[in-house]
Amino acid sequence: MTETSERIARRSVDKFAQRRAELAESTLQALSELGYARTSLREIAQKSNFSHGVLHYYFTDKVELLTYAVRKFEEVCVTRYDEAVAMARSAEELEQGFGAAMAGTLRADAVMHRLWYDLRNQSLFEEAFRADVLEIDTQRQAMIWRVVERYAELAGASPVVPPPVAYAAFDGLFQQALLHHLAGEENAGEALAEDAGSLLGRLVAGG
Prior knowledge:
The chain has helices spanning 3-34, 41-46, 52-58, 62-77, 82-87, 91-108, 110-122, 127-155, 163-182, 188-202; strands at 158-159, 204-205. By secondary structure, it is mainly α.
């Protein structure tokens, strides 16, 4: 293959990837508004610059499109607390930074978090989603565990629960806060920030 043909091939691949990314963004917008059950490929097409038929060129089916879209969102989300971990110089600073980060993403990305919980629930019924949801859940668990481990280190303590339990505790706390936030409770974010910091302290012992 000549250098010119290689450039053309790379350009074609890049364009294909760009179109898929654009469709993923449109998919997230449609899903965040309507939810999984009420979102069809036709509705997704209406929110994009592409026809219904074009969707089938870039994705084999609705499952592939939805999974790709959520994965693109999660690429950013699974590192959302890393800055709080890196910046903290004391256990108290990490409590405050982590709590503030949780409250911030609750307010800024509520509809996307709602979409994640929707898709995770759907995976209980749709086997096609299950492997991807489990992988994303594993990444989210690792994100939370980085916070817990760093907090324990700063506090001169040790975690008293394993990673799955720590993740389940924070995930449940966040989902409850999300419900209250979507219900219009203005103090849901502040309550989440306070509860998250308190929960960190309960997950370690010693020091």
